């Protein structure tokens, strides 16, 4: 069976992790009194939530975590994960995987075909909600690995060609300098695309 190499995705994982954390964690900015309000800026210090600072993060590859390869397989092991001292579950991308140009037979989870859906191979929306609820009941938190800089070739967003960085001939293209042929690069100069990305994140 052909598989893709996660090592080739290191840079993407770093970007997605940062975005997933910024999406999921709530940061509280210290209040400024009125005399200092004019000096407030984006560089003001922020406080990390108490539950995030000392917590152990466990990355979950749903496909490989259990014999059932699905959300229920993770849910069934929540007690064991809790006993290991896990405080935060970091789910690798849980979205449907694109079909065109897919890597290997299963495809890469970083080739997102729909930002507002779950991979049916992993289960249903209800199964995911059960996993999250179970984690919360045990005092654990859940963050999602978000893929913000490219999509699969069959993502509905391809109906908006200007949402993507195109080559000299006006065609979709993978991220430059990579062999990620299963994905196409988004164009963050497009305001409509940025709004759609924000909407997709808010969906979760």
Q: Can you put this structure into words, describing what you see?
A:
The protein has 204 residues and is α/β, with parallel strands linked by helices. Helices cover 27% and strands 12% of the residues. It contains six helices and seven strands, in the order H-E-E-E-H-H-H-E-H-E-E-E-H. The strands form three sheets. A three-stranded parallel beta sheet has the order 3-4-5, sandwiched between helices. It has a two-stranded antiparallel sheet with strand order 1-2. The chain is globular. The two termini are 33 Å apart. The relative contact order is 0.16.
Features:
204 residues; alpha/beta; three-stranded parallel sheet; disordered N terminus
Strand order of the largest sheet: 3-4-5
What value does the average pLDDT take? Answer: 83
Gyration radius (Cα, Å) is 19 Å
Instruction: Please identify the structural class as seen in this structure.
Output: alpha/beta
Q: What is the N-to-C order of secondary-structure elements (H for helix, E for strand)?
A: HEEEHHHEHEEEH
Q: Separation of termini?
A: 33 Å
Task: Note the beta-strand portion.
Answer: 5-15%
**Unreliable parts:** 1-45
Give a brief outline of the structure.
It contains six helices and seven strands; from the N terminus they run H-E-E-E-H-H-H-E-H-E-E-E-H. It is α/β, with parallel strands linked by helices and 204 residues long. It has a three-stranded parallel β-sheet, with helices on both faces. The chain has a two-stranded antiparallel sheet with strand order 1-2.
């Amino acid at each position: 069976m052909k598989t893709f190499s996660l090592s080739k995705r290191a840079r993407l994982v770093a970007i997605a992790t940062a975005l997933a954390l910024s999406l999921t964690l709530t940061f509280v900015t210290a209040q400024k009194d009125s005399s200092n309000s004019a000096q407030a800026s984006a560089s003001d210090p922020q406080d990390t939530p108490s539950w995030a600072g000392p917590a152990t993060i466990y990355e979950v590859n749903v496909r490989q975590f259990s014999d059932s390869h699905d959300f229920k397989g993770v849910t069934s092991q929540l007690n064991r994960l809790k006993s290991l001292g896990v405080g935060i579950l970091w789910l690798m991308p849980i979205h449907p995987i694109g079909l065109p140009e897919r890597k290997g037979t299963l495809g890469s989870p970083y080739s997102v075909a729909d930002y507002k859906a779950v991979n049916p191979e992993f289960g249903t929306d209800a199964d995911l909600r059960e996993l999250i609820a179970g984690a919360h009941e045990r005092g654990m938190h859940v963050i999602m690995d978000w893929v913000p800089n490219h999509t699969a070739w069959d993502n509905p967003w391809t109906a908006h060609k200007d949402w993507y960085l195109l080559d000299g001939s006006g065609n979709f293209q993978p991220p430059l300098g990579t062999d990620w042929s299963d994905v196409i690069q988004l164009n963050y100069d497009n305001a409509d695309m940025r709004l759609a990305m924000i909407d997709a994140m808010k969906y979760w």
